[in-house]
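Friendly challenge for the regulars: who can give me the structure tokens for this chain first? No prize, just bragging rights.
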Amino acid sequence: MGVLISGGGRSLMNLHRLIQAGQLDAQIAVVVASRRCKGEELARQAGLGVHVVSYKKSKAPADYSGQITGLLSAGGVELVVMAGFLSMWVIPPQFLGRVINIHPALLPSFGGQGMYGIRVHQAVLEAGCKITGCTVHFVTNEYDRGPIIVQRAVPVLEGDTPESLADRVFQQECIALPEAAALYAAGRLRVEGNRVCILEIGR
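First reply, four minutes later:
Bragging rights claimed.
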């Protein structure tokens, strides 16, 4: 598994804890951070191999994407997990169908360019939604448009702030992301058009 991060690294560390506890049959081979961040520090403290690839310091978008692809390929990565990754990595053909992302809303609502983090929860509240949640989906080269693997819902409560809603959604992200990774590792995901079928064990 290769994990791409840009911020606090909470989803990365949740995956790491589950792996260490024997609850997720995976190995984090490579961590790529798009900038210096808390997640990078936590990954280093956990003994994970971390690389910082700065978009701003790259010569061109193609150069940036090429650096990331090279690190993932060199690490023998089978599944790429975007865990709060905010830069644009143009996914090459050899990684299509092998990249998943966690989004803090029920896609296709509240997705797209610029919709990330607390902005999403603010938009949910402004829209007057009664239910929100998180989505794990396969990543394509269009923002938040890939086939959906797992969704988990939470209620929007009276008096919620973007921060309180974010906390409740993140609790479900900690379940949904490793669930999707485990389904992928077990070969239980089949994509049919824009729909993901979850296969029964043994099929």
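The CA atoms of residues 11 and 83 lie 6 Å apart. The helical segments are 10-20, 38-45, 61-74, 118-126, 162-185. Your move, everyone else.
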